[in-house]
Every structure is written in structure tokens, then in C-alpha cells.
Amino acid sequence: MRIFIFEKNNIPVPQDLYQTITKSADHIRDKDINQDFHNPSQPDDKLPKYNGDYNTVNYMAFGLWSLSKAYKITGDCEYLKRIIELSNWIVNRQHSGNDICNGTWKDGKGKLSETGTTEVYGESKIVYHTIILRGLVEAFDAIPKSEKEVRKNLASAIKKATNHIIKYREYSIREMILELQALFIMTSIVIN
Fold first, then answer.
1. End-to-end CA distance of the chain, in Å?
2. 56-66 tens-digit pLDDT
3. CB neighbour class for 1 (10 Å; exposed up to 12, middle 13-18, buried from 19)
4. Which of 74, 98, 130, 172 is 20 to 30 A from residue 24's alpha carbon, by CA?
């Protein structure tokens, strides 16, 4: 197995993994952002790859997470441009206010639990909230310090999302583990 060493971060990556990472990142980089979640485009199953919209905030956060990892490995500035664009898009959708939804993303619909009848924003469920938070943390870590305004906005969004978890969430064991993992990762990046 041939190993490539990328001097930017001195990360050893096998060639087949590198090709998979760049293929995935290229696909995410080239996807349009659907601004209207209520009117998604329909995927064409005849095409060889998924071509519908990534039409939830947490899907976008997964894309942001992936691009951030790809940028760290490749140093490809096209990935960085898209990381900044997706970061701004996610940050601008975050709710700000003096209510329980502060720091969440008020998108998507769902039930509070499988058996419940209480309607909630799907993206505010803890599992999706922490996915979004993780995507933002990965972007913060990838974006150069010279991008001061983007990093400032990301840091603010990360703080609001984290504070929401601390202030408003009732914990189940599983939810607490997810939250602690997200907080641990965020803390280790912010401290360094």
C-alpha cells in the first residue's frame, strides 16, 4: 500500500483513501445549496450519483465536516471556499433570541419522541443539534486564522449552540454521551 505524506499537516494517507476523500469532497463542493427546504429538487435515479438537494441543516453540517477534513488533508483552496460558504449559510440560519430556541436551528419538523405528540423542529433534536455543532467545530478548526470574521461568527455560533445544550436540555444517558463528545471535541480545539 502506497502512503502519501502531505506536508501541510504531515498527515499520512493511503492513496485509495485519498482518492475516496477527494471524490466525496468534490461531490459535496459541487452541490448547490437549496435555500428553500420546502421545495426540494427531486433526485434523478437514472444518474450514477445522488443529485437531489442536501436539504437539511444537519446534512449540510455533514458536508461541512467532510470538506473540513478533506481540506486539512489536501490543502485544496476550493474546499476552503466551500467550507466558508457552508459555514456562513449554517451560521446565518441559527436562531438568535431570548427564548428556548436560542442557539438552535428552527428547521425541519418532527415529534419530540417516537411515541410523543409534541411537535418540535427536527434540527433542534439533540442528535441533529450535535451533528450541526460538530460540523461547525470541524470548520472552525480548518479555517485559517487569517479569516477573522468567519472564525468570529463560527465561534459565536458554536458558543450559542453549546450554551443551548447546557441550559435547556434534559439528559438521557445517550444524549449526554453525544453532548459530552461534542463539548470535548469543541473544547480541545478552542483551547489549542
1. 33
2. 788 889 889 99
3. exposed
4. 130
